[in-house]
């Protein structure tokens, strides 16, 4: 079972990396979009030195992986190494077997959207699995270990420098597109991560906690916590049932309470960070 779970995990990592590579190779490289990261550096350097962006990406990533092993040792995440190598080699293979002489379409804004969405979606999936695409994330891990530098600010400065360089290397139009990409990238990643982990937190004030808890345990295969309470206005004994379920189960639970316990008072809150048995552990 453990081996099967590992295989599933690495299959998901592989698929996410493939999606990221499609966004980079098909939409980012041909349009010279340079909104940060190693792929952004590769775009700028390939133009400046007349080398392929994929080859440049491979060299930079291999150098950063080497730095990771030197400065981080065994604590250097194996998943990040796997994704970083797979991404770099994959881009080189795509360049060899699927050469592109120019952008896929004549609509740069449409291509910018895909250049942002595909890698950002893949990055969110990787982050959610405690992995990353490598690159500048490796620098962040090293900085976190050896300095008190604000990692977020440090990475943003690097990304901003790469983006600004696009104005000088490719012109104002490409530079402006790259600025849009830089601003949208982190928002998309945060939004995807939040939606992947989104659960519903129920606070149910009721007179019949047994009925509701039986449904939660038997039908939804979840658990709940019951606490005693007292109504401030009526002074009557009440019970508060607390539980967390996924979005599909939330609809089922809400409909059940509406039908079977219509006098209950129900509050539903979105939550994207649920840690504990049945959800995510502290080491997940």
UniProtKB/TrEMBL annotation:
Alphabetically ordered keywords of this record: Cell membrane, Membrane, Transmembrane, Transmembrane helix
Pfam family, one: YitT_membrane
GO cellular component, one term: plasma membrane
Domain spans labelled DUF2179: 222-276
Presence of the UniProt keyword Cell membrane in the record: yes
Ranges that cross the membrane: 12-29, 49-73, 80-98, 110-129, 149-170
Membrane topology classification: Multi-pass membrane protein
Chief localization: membrane
Alphabetized InterPro entries for the sequence: DUF2179, N-reg_PII/ATP_PRibTrfase_C, UPF0750_membrane, YitT
Protein's cellular compartments: Cell membrane
Domain of life: Bacteria
Family annotation (PANTHER family): UPF0750 MEMBRANE PROTEIN YITT, UPF0750 MEMBRANE PROTEIN YITT-RELATED
Name of the protein described by the UniProt record: YitT family protein
